[in-house]
Design brief:
Elements: E1 18-19, H1 21-32, H2 38-58, E2 63-64, H3 66-111
Helix pairs in contact: 1-2, 1-3, 2-3
Length: 113
């Protein structure tokens, strides 16, 4: 008899791909940009969305969440667009309303005395 140790065959257990944390945070900040932090949340959603997409691409199938990163990017870019449009509207309307705003403050000032 020979003293051979039986060799075990190791098989790799396929693991399920995990969600990218950056993609999830991008989606959370993208949604939060409409309720909590309008401008900063949108910037965070855009940055994290791009980082999440890059991380998912480099993971070779070990990470998922490309859709979450995409929606975070979409929500962030829409929020930035709305911010820019509202800023433009304020800059256009402010000179038109300037005299009426000054009249309102003048009326308030004279009515206090």
């Amino acid at each position: 008899m020979t003293d051979q140790i039986p060799q075990q065959q190791y098989t790799s257990i396929p693991t399920q791909p995990k969600d990218s944390t950056l993609a999830l945070l991008s989606l959370i900040f993208g949604i939060g940009a409409y309720f909590i932090l309008p401008f900063l949340g949108a910037i965070a959603a855009i940055v994290l969305g791009h980082l999440g997409k890059s991380e998912i691409k480099k993971s070779a199938g070990m990470l998922k969440g490309n859709g979450m990163a995409t929606w975070g990017l979409i929500l962030g870019y829409i929020q930035i667009g709305l911010f820019v449009l509202s800023l433009c509207a304020i800059l256009v309307l402010l000179p038109l309303l300037g005299s009426s705003i000054a009249d309102i403050f003048a009326n308030i000032n004279t009515s206090m005395y």
